[in-house]
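Support case: adenosine-5'-diphosphate complex. Customer-provided input:
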Amino acid sequence: MVQHPGSVFVVSAPSGAGKSTLTQRLVASLPDLVFSVSFTTRKPRPGEVDGREYFFVDDTTFDAMVREDAFVEWVQVYANRYGTGRAWLEEMLASGRDVLLDIETTGAANLHRVIPDACMIFVLPPTAASLEERLRTRGKDSDEQIRIRLQHARHELTFYPDYDYLVINDDIERAYRQFEGIILATRARRERMAPIAQKLLEGFA
Ligand code: ADP
Ligand code: 5GP
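Agent response - structure generated as follows:
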């Protein structure tokens, strides 16, 4: 991928850790931070809108996109496939926008290989019991689905060493401030600010 003015933030978390709560709030409050809408072959859940949560596509369309190299990364999770579209991501980054991607750990590792300067953030629940409690309170899953999600959470959590930042979502306000702090600090990094500093220098000539 070519040099780009915007930054990529990859966020992964076991289901129920509070990733959606945190990312939705960040995108709503931080200017120039946009959420990457992935493509998926899974069916929309009640309340999900095409183009907002995902672009919902059929298998044939997804196959064609894979052949055309239209994904920066894509994965198969059980019977469904999920992919990050390349064209929109490149357009956002080129225009200086920061992009937040909510993707699972395998796709995140693949994306990190393509975009090595991506900022990798992992959201963790404070305890296993609180994760179960949140899944139950959210009320989206059956007992059996919760059991599978908890098993999968254990597996996902083993990937934390691949991430730059680990945000424990104990208290939502604290976790939010920490997450926001990571984004603001990344925006101030020398590599990113160097062109502005250089321009400033030229003004002194
Ligand atoms: P994810 O996107 O990671 O699957 P959600 O953002 O949907 O998780 O959060 C799962 C549930 O936990 C939701 O009902 C949400 O309101 C709740 N929740 C999120 N953060 C916290 C927190 N810090 N303390 C208690 N409950 C939380
Ligand atoms: P769900 O079906 O519950 O919306 O999402 C299931 C999982 O797929 C979540 O862990 C989510 O982060 C992940 N996911 C969503 N979009 C993408 C994507 O484009 N690429 C990858 N690798 N994972 C994704």
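The CA atoms of residues 88 and 184 lie 23 Å apart.

Case will auto-close in a few days if no follow-up is received.
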